[in-house]
Amino acid sequence: MSRIAYVNGRYVPRAAACVHVEDRGYQFADGVYEVCEVRDGKLVDERRHMARLVRSLGELRIPLPMSLSALSVVLHEVVRRNRLGYGLVYLQVTRGVARRDHAFPPPGTRPALVVTANGLDAARADAMAAAGIAVITVPENRWERVDIKATALLPNVLAKQAARERGAREAWYVDRDGYVTEGASSNAWIVTGDGKLVTRPADFGILKGITRAVVLDAIRAQGLALEERPFTVAEALEAREAFLTSATQLVMPVVRIDGRPVGNGVPGPLATALRRGFHAFAAFS
Ligand code: PDD
Q1: What whole-number distance in Å separates Cα of residue 167 and Cα of residue 107?
Q2: Nearest Cα residue to atom 6 of ligand 1
Q3: How many angstroms separate the CA atoms of 276 and 280, rounded?
Q4: Which of 78, 144, 197, 271 has the most neighbouring CB atoms within 10 Å?
Q5: DSSP 3-state assignment of 68?
């Protein structure tokens, strides 16, 4: 079965899907995106992802390409046409196609919309979670609006590649004051020696992760101790547990930071329980 993508009004074979060379996403990374987990053919936390999309677009003054209900139909249709059980839907909106000029294109330029879907290997992800992953730390070098889910991800690409080259799965950004901001494509968490879950507040310094929000709901519902505050790399190395959250990795235990073990060097019980219980707090559509 050939895979299907949605590109500006058409469902097309993925191999033939293409955008214009003057798409501003291609030329300026002038666009935003969302990644939504698909489970049993259903979108996970679609409403929250769409709310963040609307916010990202609003911050960049890019119009919504269609109504949210029409967009929902497209997302579900891409899932259906790809017969996707478990995986991800990727959605990207750019400021559209226009003759190259840094300033905004003429009013009325239609935003461009692309939606694709990819299957994931659940067994592989669970095996990775059972072993835990390694992260490296890198200096924070991104712009100040990382709260916008922009397609401009060059620093994240370089950080992730640096991680891979050092045998790690993720890179944690560290700001000038020594505090961890977030990962190249995930939010960062620790569990302190006295059992408190700690994650950085979702101000302008991090992307307000949807998985993070669901995990916060789970933590509050279970009455677990929580502190939304920044933490340092030293504190993470002394922590009982560390983990990261994202739509692609869900709750993923972190067992090494810059080659040094976190806690006992194995996935911790809280991260493991939050991963197992995650979908009880997620919404399916
Ligand atoms: N990344 N921080 C950054 C920089 C991210 O890119 C992501 C997600 C997150 C977690 O957000 P969420 O829980 O909503 O997935 C935090 C996606 C998965 C990606 O770029 O593929």
Answers
A1: 47
A2: 185
A3: 9
A4: 271
A5: helix
Which pLDDT tens digit goes with each residue over 67-95?
999 999 999 999 999 999 999 999 999 99
256 beta partners: 134, 261
Whole-model pTM: value is 0.98
Token couple for 227: 């502190």
- The DSSP bridge partners found for residue 216 are none
Looking up tokens 């310094």 gives: 205
193 contacts 256 by C-beta, under 8 angstroms:
no
DSSP letter string over 218-239? HHHHTT--EEES--BHHHHHHS
Ligand 1-lining residues (CB < 6 angstroms): 35, 182, 185-187, 207, 209-212, 245-248
pLDDT for 203: 86
Domain annotation for the chain: domains and CATH numbers:
4-120 (3.30.470.10), 125-280 (3.20.10.10)
